[in-house]
Design goal:
Layout (H helix, E strand, L loop, with lengths): L1 E11 L7 E6 L20 E4 L9 H5 L5 E4 L2 E4 L9 H5 L5 E4 L1 E4 H9 L2 H7 L2 E5 L7 H13 L3 E6 L5 H7 L5 E5 L5 H8 L4 H13 L3 E7 L7 H11 L5 E8 L5 H6 L13 H12 L5 E3 L1
Parallel strand pairs: 2-8, 8-9, 9-10, 10-11, 11-12, 12-13
Antiparallel strand pairs: 1-2, 1-7, 3-6, 4-5
Helix pairs in contact: 9-11
The structure holds iron/sulfur cluster (SF4) (2 copies).
């Protein structure tokens, strides 16, 4: 069975307990205005172009079967609409000007990379974390990886933003040890404006999950001008306050995305957002502590 993988990151310490291998699956069901991983959104391979790195070697023109690379009036041009996403140009571009976002990998290939660090997981109580994008978009492939991890005794965590039918997550829960759930905005109108939907399904799924008894971390990226208010953060904390297996609530500061990443995919920045100061994040954490025992501002 094959899945579309954006990246596999070894020795991750931010995606669950201990030392972990984080597997990022490509494709997302949300449309967050501040997304800092735009290459993870579309559920298909893509070529990222960083023209400032191009050394003009011409290898991409030679290997492309679709004529998607050309030199026009001395300038190297990439015609995205002609691209068949075979990945040959990115393989040949040693300057790193062309980067393939999304590789189709067999479950066995992913597992081989995960299992390389088995001894580290044992010593640190770590494991494998599946993230995205939205990893539940590739539910069957994800389930295959989770079951294989379980067979090998590797602890599993899934990072999700919850925008899919509840049956998706319900089916996977027996194979997951920890869910890291992103609830970004409490207010439905704001959720619609900044995430592209009113968040009803995201909140409903979180309620089901909270009642399921599965160990759970809830995370909110705090974005200046969007959800950086006591009302928003307090509203989310109140919503999750009674979950019996909530390990902690985590506040993550928004970090602006480099423009080069957007330009590499010919995307526009939708809006400019501010990073909340660290001290202010601690103030918001105090608001959340009125409802939730363990709050971590990071
Ligand atoms: S292979 Fe890379 S460095 Fe060479 S011309 Fe193409 S984009 Fe530029
Ligand atoms: S991914 Fe393949 S089809 Fe697309 S530009 Fe590169 S070589 Fe051409």
């Amino acid at each position: 069975m094959k899945g579309l993988i954006l990246n596999i990151q070894r020795f991750s310490t931010h995606d669950g307990p201990g030392v972990r291998t984080a597997v990022f699956l490509k494709g997302c069901t949300n449309d967050c205005a501040w997304c800092h991983n735009p290459e993870s959104i579309r559920p298909r391979p893509e070529v990222q172009l960083f023209p400032e790195r191009c050394i003009g070697c011409g290898r991409c023109l030679e290997v492309c079967p679709a004529g998607a690379h050309e030199v026009v009036e001395g300038e190297k041009v990439y015609h995205r609409q002609r691209c068949q996403y075979c990945g040959r140009c990115a393989e040949e571009c040693f300057a790193g000007a062309l980067v393939m976002a999304g590789n189709s990998l067999e479950a066995e290939e992913v597992m081989a990379q995960i299992l390389e660090d088995e001894p580290y997981y044992r010593h640190s109580q770590g494991g494998a974390t599946f993230s995205g994008g939205e990893p539940l978009m590739q539910k069957d492939f994800l389930l295959e990886l989770l079951r294989r991890c379980q067979e090998r005794g590797v602890h599993t965590a899934v990072e999700t933003a919850g925008n899919y039918p509840w049956t998706f997550l319900d089916e996977l829960l027996p194979s997951i040890d920890l869910v890291i759930y992103a609830l970004k905005i409490a207010d439905p109108e704001k959720h619609r404006r900044y995430v592209g939907n009113d968040g009803e399904r995201v909140r409903a799924n979180l309620l089901f999950l909270g009642a399921s008894g599965k160990p759970l971390v809830v995370r909110t990226p705090v974005i200046g001008g969007v959800n950086d208010t006591p009302e928003e953060i307090g509203g989310i904390a109140r919503f999750i306050a009674d979950f019996p297996e909530l390990l902690y609530y985590e506040l993550l500061p928004y970090h602006p995305l480099g423009k080069a990443k957007l330009q590499s995919l010919e995307l526009e920045e939708k809006e400019h957002f501010a990073t909340p100061p660290k001290e202010y994040l601690h103030e918001l954490a105090e608001v959340a502590r009125q409802f939730v025992g363990q709050v971590r501002p990071n």
